[in-house]
Specification:
73% of the residues lie in helices and 2% in strands. It has helices at 3-25, 31-37, 53-80, 85-88, 91-114, 120-123, 146-152, 156-161, 166-190, 195-246; strands at 124-126, 131-133. The chain has a two-stranded antiparallel ribbon with strand order 1-2. The longest helix has 52 residues, at 195-246. The radius of gyration is 23 Å and the shape is elongated.
């Protein structure tokens, strides 16, 4: 079986297993969601950390803007690859990175805009002795988590560089997971999302890559052939020179 088929089959099975786990073991607004968000919820259903500077400004604004700037840098590197020979071999990697970052986060945004799931901070109703969760709200536009998508989208780098630069590929994968979970957890502390919202965000972004990666596979791996051919060419040159001198 060709490498691409093995990889796609493996990723398809991972997506299927994660879908089943999220759907049946970690449902939106289920027991696990309520248990994990409970420590950040006040006695009467308020969220004391909602306007915390570190969570609202640093995480939701500055970190997000920094990651957007990082995304724009991939576009700049792609454009520069047409002029700088050193970047030419990775032109398709940067194009794939920027394109899938925009596409996957846009898909998350579209799904969120059409979602009926409400945000936790809109779902609590205070009572005399505490609060109740109102799961009857509709048109909440809060699922999947949009903010975490900016972090999770860096996982795209794993697909872009998995063949040509494995270490860099796993750097993007780990960085995307850490940033996505961290940004999503901060939003959960504020009452903006349940954790399941953000887990589905990671699933959607990974799914976008698994679906589109085969279309760019040859382009993304062709640079590996170019780079591996360059050293052999440089080795042959001295041998030719020596032959000419001997003649």
């Amino acid at each position: 079986m060709p490498e691409l088929q093995r990889f796609s089959l493996k990723q398809g099975l991972i997506l299927l297993c994660c879908f089943i786990l999220l759907q049946f073991w970690f449902p939106v607004g289920g027991k696990l969601d309520l248990m994990l968000i409970q420590p950040w919820t006040g006695i009467h259903g308020q969220f004391p950390w909602r306007y915390d500077w570190f969570l609202e400004k640093l995480n939701h604004k500055y970190v997000k803007n920094l990651l957007i700037l990082c995304d724009v840098s991939f576009l700049a590197l792609w454009l520069a690859s047409f002029k700088i020979k050193r970047l030419h071999a990775q032109r398709w990697q940067y194009a794939y990175l920027f394109g899938l970052l925009i596409l996957s986060t846009s898909v998350v945004g579209i799904l969120k805009s059409q979602s009926g799931h409400a945000c936790p901070w809109n779902m609590t109703e205070a009572t005399a002795t505490g609060f109740l969760w109102n799961f009857n709200l509709s048109h909440g536009h809060c699922f999947p988590g949009g903010h975490a998508a900016t972090g999770f989208a860096l996982m795209t780098g794993f697909f872009a560089f998995r063949q040509t630069a494995p270490k860099r590929a796993y750097f993007y994968l780990i960085a995307g997971l850490i940033l996505g979970f961290g940004m999503g957890w901060a939003q959960m502390m504020r009452g903006a999302h349940f954790l399941s919202h953000n887990l589905w965000t990671a699933w959607v972004i990974w799914c976008c890559n698994v679906a589109l990666y085969p279309l760019f596979y040859k382009r993304l791996t062709s640079s590996q052939t170019v780079e591996s051919a360059q050293p052999s060419a440089s080795i042959q040159q001295p041998a030719t020179a020596n032959t000419e001198e001997a003649a």
